[in-house]
Specification:
cell wall biogenesis/degradation, L,D-transpeptidase catalytic domain-like, alpha+beta, peptidoglycan synthesis, 10-stranded mixed beta sheet, Transpep_catalytic_dom, L,D-transpeptidase, 205 residues, LD_TPept_cat_dom, 3 helices
Length: 205
Amino acid sequence: MHIKPLLVASAMMAATALAGCSSIGGPTYTASYASVTDAGYRLPAIPRTKVPSQFHRQVVSYETREAPGTVIVDTGAKFLYFVMPDGKAMRYGIGVGKQGFEWQGTARVAMKREWPMWTPPAAMIKRRPELAEYRGGMQPGLQNPLGARALYLFRGGHDTGYRLHGTPEWWSIGKAMSSGCIRLLNQDIVDLYNRVDIGAKVIVK
């Protein structure tokens, strides 16, 4: 008489386990935003419930003529797509440039840096004189605006000044708050960094 309840319970447990790794016909949620130690730094956990679910890292269906390995940034929707084979992409939530700092175009990843230094450009120091102390560069760390990783975008062999980078400001994801760079959650930029090759094409639209 107890077989049916046991079968139901087993089915529910199996469904719960599968939901964490795959979902046929829908997105696959893959992100872990737990605290993690990286290169001696302890990245704090991201409060998942405070970040809208559409901005959590996930695999989605994505049709494009661009080759796998391409990065496509949709600034309007606040999504970054890393193109994968078979009509799929890893999608990340992003923060983008505030009004007056938006940009569009095609670039290439020329450099990748783990826990990079950050040097505010002269124009930024002019707008915010308090940043002058970092004219020679801000050391890597949990409060560094570039976060845990940075991908440097070049066009025609020249540095655009724009980066794909992490941020400690998780609340800025899904918003237009930056000075033009594309920011991701620190745990997401670590994931993207491990996927993107030097020379990868980046399309910002």
